[in-house]
Specification:
about 750 residues, elongated, disordered N terminus
């Protein structure tokens, strides 16, 4: 390594004669380095003003977020749903009142009289239409098989927020005891509203859990209470900024309430990752005798570049969700990209400014001295340590054993995913005691068919009564059909309600969707309903999944090539990252689909996995794995550029980053587990699944599998054809301080000698 005027006044010469002060090829870090070191107070003031504006702009964001978004807006089922809402607003009830008559029959005169009074009152409520009940229609589908419960169905009109406000206004006057009957409120609108309320409450609790625990862990990692506070400040800036971004997006598009959980988790997790990396490098530079401004400059030219690069790889993985039509997935892309970029911006601008002002005081308030004897060590960040070097030596001595054992183990852990069954989110997302969950559970267990969960066939085109009757007879003869109601005709449109024999979204109901769509009719038909939405959602995901996977793979391969200049390392990174996620997917099916540990974790298994969740979890976990991968590879590449010794470079990289990556993964896992304490099953699955993925990646893949595979690939690890090597020399980046150009030829000969020794 050669450096001219290392205090920052001169330029270092990198490969191909590039200047390494930020003015040559590659990322231009010189500008912001000079700004934050020259004007740190101004940088912090601007950040403070932006944070205050974000608090104002992001206020009330949770109230504007939706709880749906699983449907494909261009699907047949979506068209039919919108047409039915327009032409037959009472066709799809979203409010259900479960009437319990106790020991009496629902046909008892006193019960019937009280129920009818409730029905009449409900029909007069503003914002409620299409009120119907068992006592009006006599439909057996609205009467429980034991004769002690029956249903009142209605539709609350308006968009999701307006419907929720109407529900809040009318529900208290209906639930509870009314003479001889007991009333509980349920239906899709109640489920959605209860999910939103629960998520807001759970998020507050998760933050109260995660913040103090994270602070304690950061103190343990850094020793200094001052240094430990810095990642939290970065995270708070990223979270508040992302809330403001989401609030702005709600003016133009739908955004899912679930995305706010990802904002909190990634905001804290990535802020901690980036701050750990920046602060640790800064303290290393201080330990060499550099003054604070010089130390920050060197930190930004090295670790700063890696953080910038890492944030891009995470953002790429999350951006893949923009390719899917469901706003549930797109919402996570909005939130994820915003929080990643804001966390990186804070780590590269706000944090360095604070470090310049703090200087050596970043090591102040070493709380660990209270728990140990003797003089504190000068540098005790996670990341160094002889133990990691010894582990690297052991892994590389037995590289074939570690490579095979870890790969086989990860594959075995992922085997349960081969039995995955995809479904849709329903009331079972809620705790078992939630009122809307209780109502729907009573309907599933006690009522024939699937009241409120049937299929609707929307018919367009003029037809005669005979044609309608013939079509009704044909679809009534389908093997999965329990009963067909209708048609209800309005002008040239009509609709039929079809009740499947099984549950609303089981395999039989999904087959029935295809059979209904294939049934000949003298008019145009479109099928909707819960099962139809699921079928269309699965189709949309299957159609876009190859494109999303290709996007992630291609961009990741390119970015990792820019970092390493190798053809093989990017391929290894993509394959090993994907392999690291197998345990997460296997656990998701074993726990949340099959119901193991459901009592311990406090959820109700629906026997399936919501269709969009694996896509979301893959994109998030893959991005986080790349985050850790970039940290490790950047230090390996730094040492390899410096010495040309492949084996020593791998050892150095693991020794310098093993503890750092593990600490970051543990802290991020704590944040995700806090999110996983949610009472909403999808949020619990997301939090606990991602926590498992990052721990497996840090402790198994980065610590064992990556060094073993790199040892096996040996000299070929760094190979690239001439044109690509020249491209990397011009446009690539490196964290390290490269050797001067005149030393490169000698270094190449050194690498050849080392590679020949293995």
């Amino acid at each position: 390594m050669s450096e001219v005027n290392s205090a920052g006044g001169g330029a270092r010469v990198g490969p191909g004669g590039r200047s390494d002060d930020g003015s040559g090829g590659g990322p231009r870090v010189g500008g912001w380095t000079r700004f934050v070191t020259a004007r740190p107070r101004l940088s912090l003031l601007v950040a403070l003003v932006l944070t205050a504006l974000a608090v104002v702009a992001g206020s009330g964001v949770a109230d504007r977020l939706g709880s749906g978004g699983w449907e494909d807006p261009g699907a047949q089922s979506t068209y039919a749903t919108e047409a039915l809402e327009r032409e037959f607003p009472a066709s799809q009830p979203n409010l259900l009142l479960l009437i319990d008559s106790g020991s009496a029959s629902v046909d008892d005169p006193a019960v019937a009289a009280e129920a009818k009074r409730l029905v009449e009152r409900l029909a007069g409520e503003k914002g409620v239409t299409g009120v119907g009940s068992y006592w009006q229609s006599g439909s057996p589908a609205l009467r429980a098989q034991d004769g002690h419960e029956a249903l009142v169905a209605a539709r609350i009109t308006g968009e999701e927020k307006a419907a929720g406000e109407t529900l809040d206004r009318i529900a208290p006057s209906y639930r509870g005891t009314h003479g001889p009957i007991e009333v509980q409120v349920g239906g899709p609108v109640a489920v959605r509203h209860e999910i939103q309320t629960t998520i807001r409450e759970d998020l507050t609790r998760a933050e109260l859990i995660a913040l103090p625990v994270t602070l304690v862990l950061l103190v343990m990692v850094f020793g200094s209470a001052v240094a430990a506070l810095l990642p939290l400040l970065v995270g708070i800036f990223a979270i508040l900024g992302t809330n403001a971004v989401l609030r702005g997006l709600t003016e133009f598009t739908d955004v899912s309430v679930f995305a706010i959980n990802l904002t909190t988790a990634l905001g804290l997790g990535l802020a901690i990752d980036y701050a750990l990396f920046i602060v640790r490098r800064f303290r290393e530079e201080l330990a060499t005798g550099a003054d604070p401004s010089t130390a920050v400059g060197r930190t930004l030219r090295t670790a700063g570049r890696t953080v910038l690069f890492s944030s891009l790889t995470v953002a790429v993985s999350l951006a893949a969700m923009l390719l899917f039509p469901q706003y549930f997935l797109r919402s996570f892309a909005y939130a994820g990209i915003a929080v990643v970029l804001l966390a990186a911006a804070a780590a590269l601008i706000l944090l360095p400014a604070a470090l310049v002002l703090l200087g050596h005081r970043v090591n102040s308030l070493d709380l660990r001295r209270l728990f140990r004897r003797g003089k504190p060590r000068a540098s005790s960040d996670a990341g160094g340590g002889a133990a990691w070097g010894r582990m690297a030596d052991l892994v590389m001595r037995r590289a074939p054993v570690f490579a095979v054992a870890t790969s086989v183990g990860l594959v075995v852990l992922g085997l349960p995913f081969l039995g995955v069954k995809f479904g849709t989110a329903d009331d079972r997302q809620l705790p078992s005691g939630a009122e809307s969950h209780v109502v729907q559970q009573h309907i599933r267990e006690g009522f024939p068919g699937s009241p409120g969960g049937g299929l609707e066939v929307f018919a367009e085109g003029r037809a005669t009564e005979t044609q309608y009757a013939q079509y009704k007879e044909r679809i009534g003869a389908l093997p999965e059909v329990l009963r067909v109601d209708g048609p209800l005709v309005k002008g040239d449109s009509a609709y039929f309600t079809v009740l499947p024999k099984g549950e609303a979204v089981d395999e039989g109901a999904q087959r029935l969707v295809g059979e209904l769509r294939a049934t000949n009719a003298p008019f145009d038909t479109k099928v909707t309903g819960t099962a139809a939405v699921l079928v269309d959602s699965k189709h949309a995901i299957a159609e876009q999944l190859p494109w999303a996977a290709a996007f992630i793979a291609i961009v990741t391969l390119f970015l990792v090539f820019l970092l390493t200049g190798s053809v093989l390392i990017p391929i290894q990174a993509v394959l090993l990252n994907a392999l690291s996620l197998t345990a997460m997917f296997g656990a998701v099916v074993w726990v949340f689909q099959d119901g193991h540990l459901s009592g311990l974790l406090g959820f109700t298994s629906s026997g399936s996995i919501e269709t969009t969740l694996p896509v979301l979890m893959f994109c998030v976990a893959f991005g986080l794995s790349m985050d850790y991968g970039v940290f490790l590879l950047s230090r390996i590449k730094e040492e390899y550029d410096r010495t040309g010794d492949h084996r020593e470079a791998v050892r150095f990289g693991l020794q310098r980053t093993g503890g750092l990556i593990t600490a970051a993964a543990v802290i991020l896992a704590v944040v995700m587990v806090a999110i996983g304490t949610s009472r909403i099953t999808n949020t619990k699955m997301l939090g606990l699944g991602i926590a498992l993925a990052v721990l497996m990646d840090a402790m198994i893949v980065r610590s064992l599998l990556v060094p073993a595979v790199m040892r096996l690939t040996g000299r070929a690890t760094w190979w690239a054809p001439g044109p690509l090597r020249r491209f990397h020399d011009r446009f690539g980046l490196s964290e390290g301080e490269p050797r001067p150009a005149e030393a490169l030829e000698e270094g190449d000969r050194d690498r050849d000698k080392v590679a020949a020794r293995g």
